[in-house]
Amino acid sequence: MTTTTELFARCVLPGCGNSTDNQGSPCLDCTRAFTDYLQLGTRPPLTEAEQREATSRSEPHSAPTSPSPLQQRPPTRPARH
């Protein structure tokens, strides 16, 4: 299997394709957006190959689907007193 290296390091956060200065680090946009949620890890940053492997293993996110008309419940009417 042949692998190609990228010219620029990419953001380590899944779903972000922005370039970054350091391999295994978040890009500036993600750093600004997720400052309160990001923490320094105790392990070394992911290498390009590790990041590519982790990305290929992750499941794509899908939006929740609305139920089909057969699954929808009919609206309830208020009880008459």
Q: How would you describe the overall organization of this protein?
A:
With 81 residues, this protein is mainly alpha-helical. The protein contains two helices and no strands. The termini are far apart. The longest helix has 10 residues, at 48-57. It has helices at 28-33, 48-57. It has a domain at 1-56.
Could you list some keywords that capture this structure?
elongated; mainly alpha; 81 residues
Report the sheet-strand fraction. Answer: under 5%
The SSE string, one letter per element, is HH
Q: What is the number of strand segments?
A: 0
Q: What is the rounded distance between the termini?
A: 74 Å
- Gyration radius, to the nearest Å? 22 Å
Unreliably modeled segments:
none
Inertia-based shape: elongated
Major beta sheet summary: none
Question: What is the assembly state of the chains in this entry?
Answer: single chain
Work out the helicity level.
10-25%
Q: Tally the helices.
A: 2
> For the residues shown, what is the average pLDDT?
76
> Structural class from helices and strands?
mainly alpha
Summary?
Helices cover 20% and strands 0% of the residues. It has 81 residues and is an all-alpha fold. It has a domain at 1-56.
Task: Give the SSE layout.
Layout: H1 28-33, H2 48-57
